[in-house]
Amino acid sequence: MARPHLRLASEAPVLRSARPIIEMKGVSKTYRTRDGDVPSLKPIDFTITEGEFLVIVGPSGCGKSTLLKMVAGLLPPSTGEIRVEGRTIVKPHSDVGVVFQQPLLLPWRSVLANVMMPVEVKGLDKAHFGKRALDLLDMAGLADFAHKYPWQLSGGMQQRASICRALVHDPKIVLMDEPFGALDAMTREKMNVELQRIQRATGKTVLFITHSIPEAVFLADRVLVMSERPGTIAGVYEVDLDHPRTLDVMADPRFVALTQKIRQHFYAHGGID
Amino acid sequence: MAHAKRRRSIGGFLQKAWVRPALLMIVLVILWDLAIKVFQIPAYQVPSPIDVAVTLYKEWPLLLREAVPTTTATLAGFLLSAAFGIPVAMLIASSKTVESYVYPLLVFSQSIPKVAIAPLFVVWFGFGIFPKVIAAFLLGFFPVVVSAVQGFKSVDPDLMDLARSMEAKKFQTFRMVSLPFATPAIFAGLKVSVTLAVVGAVVGEFVGSNSGIGFLLQRSIGNFELPMMFAALVVLALIGMILFWLVDVVERFAIPWHASQRHDFVVAT
Predict the structure, then answer these.
(1) Where do the TM regions start and end (chain B) (predicted)?
(2) Exposed e or buried b per residue across A126-163, where buried means at least 16 C-beta atoms within 10 angstroms of its C-beta
(3) B158 → closest Cβ in A94, A102, A108
């Protein structure tokens, strides 16, 4: 998995090590319903290394959100084992921050109070993390909106605030479940550039879920392609593009070739969505 | 110029929240007076608005004195229904078992007319304030429970996942997510409850009391003092309105963030 050209070209410090941080072994999920068992995810194995930006791309209902919920400890796997930093996950844990499809900001809390919610829940030092929350909001371009209420913000700003909330307690891993799916195309592109910058600056390990192929290739160190229900891994691709990436990278022949290659998976399987 | 200014001030006057219902009220009173004259309705059937107004003015001290026990009983019953209704709703919403046992019985109990069982409270609690408070409580309780259950149950499951992903404890989730989420629905229930509590208190006074607006109503009907009876009704409506308004004011302070309370809207990009 050595990619010296990427590391040499990167201006950001070398954050990636080969140390595995998330390990999945034979993880599957079957939902029990009245009409019998519905397999959502076939047994899968993969490993995410520290500081890696891994994007899972797949059609609707391929079990990718289920996968993310299992890593967050919100859902137990039916079989197999998930380990985060060597510990088996059986319930929600503090090593992760989760960003959901919707911003899910509490309307009765100001933006800052929303970002501080994990700190309050976990009983962490308010002075220290309060400063961190303000720094994060500043980084997300929301410094002037800290004391506003969520409904006074646009959709893109709300989602940025929810990313700050996922980062405030300094988790090693950030799980993102189609976080930009509800945004318009232009805002979405801007957010992708921002997120990539933030990930490079903080060195977080990111597991990101999307059904947009260009988004996946733009963001990822590695793209994991999933097939339709019940989900399996259809392919894994390393993204050989230099950092920091700008939107111009989308015209790069390597970018075009890789998106084409990934797209073929879905046409072979009857299309995406 | 002066003309335009005056028109604007009339427009502004019409914008005030209380002006429009007051105008409609005046129109209705005029129609009432006209109907009596046109259809020649005798005064022992429907009194004229002027007679009612005169009685209101003359008997104001008496009406005010009798309004005190009614209002006290209403408030006590209302506060009891809030104090019991919200926790009961929490229990029902949090446990399927509790819901399956309690909720159907609660609905069943609502079909029993309170007027029919009110005399029982007099037998149990005597002629004091207790039977009235119980009647007010029984009428006010149900709407609080129904609205609060609906509020607690409609909490976005994604928000619960969010709280869980932060390792929030049960009580933290309740305090930070469920309770604030349910508050607007609870207030909707409280508003219905407070007006029904007035009805409950009057029912209590009908069956066994020697004070209060309900007592006054019954006595004036018995004596064919219709202007007095109508004046008592006006006072009753005023009590209900003021209490409703009070709950509304409390709501505005309790949930300034809610969409129904937003007056200044800021659009940011």
Answers:
(1) 21-39, 73-93, 105-127, 133-152, 173-190, 229-247
(2) eeebbebbbebbebbebeebbebbbebbeebbbbbbbb
(3) A102
Strand order in the sheet with A87-88: A36-49, A20-33, A79-84, A87-88
pTM of the model: 0.78
Q: Pick from A92, A101, A149: which is nearest to B165 by CB?
A: A92
Report the topology of domain B47-261: MetI-like fold (1.10.3720)
User: Across the interface, do B161 and A145 touch by the CB < 8 Å criterion?
Assistant: no
pLDDT digits (tens, 9 = 90+) for B227-242: 999 999 999 999 999 9
Min Cα separation B111/chain A (Å): 35
Average pLDDT for chain B: 87
Residue of B nearest to A93 (CA): B167
- In chain A the domains, ranked by start, together with CATH numbers, are 10-95+172-268 (3.40.50.300), 105-170 (no CATH)
Instruction: Kindly determine whether residue B177 and residue A72, on different chains, have CB atoms separated by under 8 Å.
Output: no
Structure tokens at B64: 């005010």
Distance from A8 to chain B by nearest Cα, in Å? 37
Domain residues of chain B, as ranges? 1-41, 47-261
